[in-house]
Design brief:
elongated; alpha+beta; Umud Fragment, subunit A; two-stranded antiparallel ribbon; 3 helices
Amino acid sequence: MKELSGKQADILEFLRSFIEEKDYPPSIRDIQEGCGISSTSVVDYNLRKLEEKGCIRRDREVSRGIEILGARGRRPRIVEVPLLGSIAAGQPIPVPTSDRWANDSDETVAVTEEMVRHKANVFALRVKGTSMVEDLIDDGDIVFLEPAQSAVNGDRVAVWLKDRGEVTLKRFFHEGDRVRLQPANSTMDPIYTTPENVEVQGRFISSIRPSD
């Protein structure tokens, strides 16, 4: 591997730290701010040099498509996760496919296997609302979920509310003869309902914030 400049070494170390902490790659602007670089064009230039020197691989067709290559150039496996629609992290909203969670989505999100914990049949939903913001899940983020039909107290789950015909993302708590769906936002009230009215559809794995 060719010798790196100081800036390139800083960027590579930032990439490693960011991915280790968040389980997904940073955006160009994340790198600019995290490394104190003057412009995104300087970041892009140094990323090109890191790619030429065999340190990283970039997929310019994929948001945050930066992969750190191993000592022998091994690349993390990329998987395409179906993006099935939107989910409310606020007040519940209708999701047209939520009655059957179809796998024939026209849109997919490309991520590493590590991002989805090597789990099978993972699906993605785009978040609308801010009720999970204290769990670092904000409006516009994409959440990855594994299919699930049950939950234990504290799980973050996508639940179908039968009486409303709507789906929402909340923390699940079973409290005697009722279920509490708790937002991760101290300004918002929980949703209380009966166990019969709640159908767990998916369990939260991870989330990403798409680049602008």
